[in-house]
Design a protein that fits this description.
This protein has 2 helices and no strands. With about 80 residues, the protein is mainly α.
């Protein structure tokens, strides 16, 4: 009972809001929090996909750099053989 009176005090006296109106406000906040959570989850999923894409691009880039370096070495070797 004491908690109920404290809640009533907080909602009705301090904020001058009836208990029904307070519940309505809480419902609106709950809906807002759910939307925020969904946005955070979508953002997190996008970032995960972005990191995966960047990781594969980095691996491809490193592989291509290695191939170019190998070709450069082969060309240098051929050039020395010609001279």
């Amino acid at each position: 009972m004491k908690k109920r009176k404290e809640l009533k005090y907080v909602t009705e006296i301090k904020f001058k809001v009836s208990e029904g109106k307070f519940k309505k406000i809480l419902d609106q906040h709950e809906k807002a929090f759910i939307l925020i959570l969904k946005e955070i989850q979508a953002f997190r999923e996008e970032m995960r996909e972005y990191r995966q894409t960047m990781s594969s691009l980095m691996h491809t880039d490193i592989k291509q750099e290695r191939n170019v370096e190998n070709l450069r070495i082969r060309v240098e070797t051929l050039e020395t053989k010609i001279k």
